[in-house]
Amino acid sequence: MQHTDVNTLGEFGLIDHLTKEFAIVQPSTVKGVGDDAAVIDNGALCTVVSTDMLVEGIHFDLSYVPLRHLGYKAVVVNLSDIYAMNAFPKQVTVSIAISNRYSVEALDELYAGIRAACEAYQVDLVGGDTASSPKGMTISVTAIGQAEKDKIVYRSGARPGDLICITGDLGAAYLGLQLLEREKRIWLENPDVQPDLENQKYAVGRQLKPEARRDMIEAFRKNSLLPTSMIDISDGLASELFHLCKQSGTGALIEESGVPIHPESEMLALKFKLDPITCALNGGEDYELLFTIDPQDVEKVKYLPEIYIAGEMLEATAGIKLNTKGGNLHTLKAQGWVHF
Ligand code: ADP
Ligand code: MG
């Protein structure tokens, strides 16, 4: 048997390679692999399903992530994928694989976080699986949501001329991670030094306790706004924009001045000698929404708080470009988070 390194394909190449031979045989399967969640037609309503896995040492480091926060985040990142379909999550299942290093008390903490997320987003924990693991912890959460068929928004619906919108602000979660990693290194070198995170509460909070944008999906409903395409920003703006453009068959132009970045993120980026826009484009874990709207709907978003118009979809031949504050046009690269 040949041995091809999985890294040669990259995450998305590998998913494509593994799933391309699977035919869809059920008429109720509206959308299979390739969006934030799968869509299943149940008559009046569609069911929307998404799964994400968090692996210790890859996605989280328990030397600075409290278990309660980890539980909360594991649920929230899945709910974010359901909202990204313009649907509402209703249930979750939680599966864990754990080594004997973890006590009942530690797992109680994890589940306190899971419970807090279930309460905050009004979703029910309805099942899961528990297994032992030779080393570390793995958490897999599946979220199940609902929406009317004509309300579901895919990655593929954007058209040239549509306006590109971003919620909240970007880059802070990545900067929070840089800060936690730095404090960990300092602590390992000198355990007597206490971490100094007090002045960086915003970025650390964005990394340790992300929230999913349920408020935005509610605002869309209230204002009768149906985005033409949508994705949640888990891997950085550049990577998500590439997904929207690839699946919609468009290009895009982003204005650097239109990309929302929190003032604390800007200051922190400068401290780390990073360009804030690079953190927004290539950082990860913001769990904000990137969506496009028909320009006729611009009045509907203009007065909604925390929605920023950052650019325009173009014909595919125009490519994917960033117009910097200095007036230079850069071609964007899809530099997502590489988890392998
Ligand atoms: P997201 O970042 O929104 O969670 P992913 O990039 O993880 O999405 O996944 C992209 C698509 O590929 C999704 O439709 C997901 O369900 C599917 N997918 C990922 N891994 C696998 C796998 N091992 N087998 C089948 N489908 C997969
Ligand atoms: Mg997603």
Enumerate the strands of the largest sheet in spatial order, edge to edge or round the barrel.
8-10-7-11-9-12-13
| pLDDT averaged residue by residue | 95
The number of helical elements comes to 10
The CATH homologous superfamily of the largest domain is called PurM-like C-terminal domain
How many independent structural domains? Answer: 2
Largest sheet report: 7 strands, mixed
Beta content: 25-35%
Shape: globular
Q: How much is the radius of gyration in Å?
A: 20 Å
Q: Helical residue percent?
A: 25-40%
Distinct small molecules bound, one entry per kind: adenosine-5'-diphosphate, magnesium ion
Poorly predicted sequence stretches spanning 5 or more consecutive residues: 336-340
Q: SS-based structural class?
A: alpha+beta
What's the CATH topology name of the largest domain? Answer: Phosphoribosyl-aminoimidazole Synthetase, Chain A, domain 2
CATH top level of the largest domain is Alpha Beta
Task: Give the N-to-C terminal Cα separation.
Answer: 22 Å
